[in-house]
Each structure stands twice: as structure tokens, then as C-alpha cells.
């Protein structure tokens, strides 16, 4: 079947090129997942990615019987490496990932295409809510969705993290930034055809990585709420968390009469899908403060090139002149520095340009968002690794947020508090007309990667949790 798909979809060079584009696959599955062409392209995309994994080295066990031991050893190794990191930091070593706050915010933006579809690869498991083999996968997906609690829904948490730090307006990213998210969405909508790969991918993704621990620690140092990351540290634990459930899911889905060797090979390939796309380390290493600042100014240029008054010239040119053509940002910054509008290596408050953009009464307040201002702040003050102070011990507890909402899963059917709840009331009325089987299918529809953060999606998740708890 997939061979026929490949032949029909690659009938033209343009179609083949589009299929290989991760961003296209990502956007189409979010915007129109029911579209047959989007589904076809996602299957072909998965096939392509899986073909590449076969060429990569891996540390996956060769036998299913060694899986639990492999997981436990991986956890021990990560713990030992993190202990070494903490020891180095305690002795005064600089941060390993984020030399400046702007670098940390850039990281949050660059991993956003993946984080904003967090857990999506498990969506297809919901269709098998009657099958006990899928219980672990389903429970993991429900926890990714916060079981309908918006304060614990992972995607909502990440959106709030971006918004809180003024970096929720994402710039144009490369196609490679979308590879991981596209893989997750493709698995979500092709779960039945790629079940071994799905459980293998889930196994790899749910293991505790070193970069997650370091990211949480250094975000806290920079006064950026690490709760999204610390939440994953706790729920993914190898004792009772998602890492353990991932192992159990592989074991539950292992065939007892089919070709076990082939199944295990496909699980291994799915596991290696985690190696594709941009890694956390690659994103960290790619950051250059001045380059990022220049790209940001170039993006802003088109919005400000004709709206400045001409009473002030800088280096013989008006601001409109400086912004009238691309490629002038670096020279503009240099001129601002020469004319003392910007004083480098000093508190930004000493710079006239900074005072124009910072503060509620500043003439240009609101022109730059939080991330953009942080780039300017760090570049002006010339922050770097060598100026970091030794870290102080951080208490992550002060960042932990708890839900204060007591959801009544099936009792809010009389809600009539206003139009803001109209979406939920429509779903409630719709469900009343359906049989139990039909209700479950409709709930699953609203729990999709593109819908579960909506009021209807959160309500559907709570309803599904209630119904599913009676099945397992």
C-alpha cells in the first residue's frame, strides 16, 4: 500500500519536493489533518525519515529482554553526568548552555515547533481505548494533556512560558526546526500503520535526557520559570513515570505469534527517529548574540522604515533612511555606538537608545517584545560567559504551580455563564445525542493535537478521562 502511495505522490518533481518539506507536513497536519493528501504526505515523510535512521549508530538493545536493564542503566548514566555538571558549576564553572538570558529565550523559541505539539505522537492510540495493550500509551497522552486541566496541559504551559517572557511571536525558522514536530504529528495520524515505530519513538522520547536537567537548572538561574521542564523531569521518571510506561507499552504490543524479530527492528528504527532534527545541543551551539540581534533588526526593519519623523539624523541619515534598504543593521548599530546613542559594556540605562525603548513612558515602548529587548540589553551590556558569577543553589519549588481549579468532569452540563463557554456547551449538546461509542469517537476528535488546548478540547479530555477510567 505504501509503495502505491509513493508512486502516486511522486508523479511530479514538485510534489516530491513538497513531501520532503517538514514544515509543510507539520502545518498541514495541524491545519487539515483529515485531508487525504496531508495524510499521504505524512506517511511518505515518515518513510523517508525511517530510511535515514537505518544509517545512524544507536545504543538500542538488540534483544527485548534487555529493555528494562537498558532503561535503568541509561537513567544511572544521566544521573552521573548531571552530578558531574553540578559539581563543576559548584566550583565556579560557567553555565554550559545559556551564557545570557537572551540565549535562553532564543532556545525556548527554537524548540517551540516541537514543544507546541508535545505528546502528539500518542494521539492515534486513543482509537484503541478498548484494547488493554494501549492503556499505557493512552494514559501518557492524557497526562501530556493535563487530563483536561489547563494548568497542567503541556502545550498550554509552553505557550504561557513563551508569552510570559515576551517571545511568543516566533520568527521564520528553517525546515530542520520542524522535523521533530513533523515526525510526532505524522506518527499521530498514522499510528496503525507505524505501531512498532510509534512505541519505539515513545520509548526514546520519554527517557530522561541530560539536556532537560541542565536546561531546567540554568533557566532557574536566569529567573526564567523552569516548570515546564521540571514537570517533564518528574513525570518522565524511570520508576513510575512515562519512561517506565514506555517500556511496558513496548512489551504489551510485542506480538506473540508474528515475526518478533521484524517487530523489534521496527521498534529500534522508531527509537532512532529521536536523533533526527535539531538537537538541544545543536541549538545551543548555533547561537551568536550579535548575529541574532542583526537578524531581529532586519525583521523589524520593514515595519519601521517609513514611520519615523525626519527631525533627527544619525551619521547623516534619518532613521527612515537607515531602515529603507536591507543589510544596513550592522552599520546602523555601529553608528549609534559612535554617536553615543549606545554605550557598550555599560548598564543599558546609560544608553540613550535603550531609554527610548524601555519603560512605560519610553517614546518607543512596545516596539520591541521581551525577547527583542533582551537581545539589545545583552548586546549593549556585552554580557558573556567570563562575567558570570558562581551559581547559587536554586529551589525549584518556588516555580511549581498547582491547579486551583477543581474540575467536575461530568457535572458542568448546566453551565450558562456566557458566550465564552458557548464552545463547550455546543459540544455538551452534541454528546447528549450520541451513543457511548459515538461519544468516545467525538471526544477523541476534540483531543487532537490542534484542538486539545481549546475549551472544547479541555472539556473533551476531562470527559474522556472519566469514561476511560471506567474501562481500565
The helix/strand class is mainly alpha
Counting structural domains, the number is 3
What is the share of helical residues? 55-70%
**Largest beta-sheet characterization:** 2 strands, antiparallel
Side-by-side strand order of the widest sheet:
1-2
CATH-defined superfamily of the largest domain: Heme oxygenase-like
Query: Low-confidence spans: pLDDT under 50, at least 5 residues?
Result: 1-19, 384-391, 396-417
Keywords:
single chain; about 475 residues; mainly alpha; Heme Oxygenase, Chain A; 3 domains; two-stranded antiparallel sheet; 24 helices
3D architecture notes:
The protein has 472 residues and is mainly alpha-helical. It folds into three domains: 64-284, Up-down Bundle (Heme Oxygenase, Chain A); 289-387, no CATH class; 419-469, no CATH class. Helix content is 56%, strand content 1%. The chain is built from 24 helices and two strands. A two-stranded antiparallel sheet has the order 1-2. Strand 1 and strand 2 (317-318) form a beta hairpin. Helix 12 packs antiparallel against helix 13 (227-235). The chain is globular. The two termini are 34 Å apart.
Short summary of the structure?
The chain is an all-alpha fold and 472 residues long. 56% of the residues lie in helices and 1% in strands. Strands 1-2 form a two-stranded antiparallel ribbon.
Sequence-ordered SSE layout with sheet pairings:
Blueprint: H1 2-9, H2 13-19, H3 22-31, H4 36-53, H5 67-90, H6 101-110, H7 112-115, H8 135-144, H9 154-164, H10 179-188, H11 195-205, H12 210-221, H13 227-235, H14 242-253, H15 260-272, H16 280-286, H17 289-304, E1 313-314, E2 317-318, H18 319-323, H19 329-338, H20 352-357, H21 370-381, H22 422-432, H23 436-446, H24 455-469
Antiparallel strand pairs: 1-2
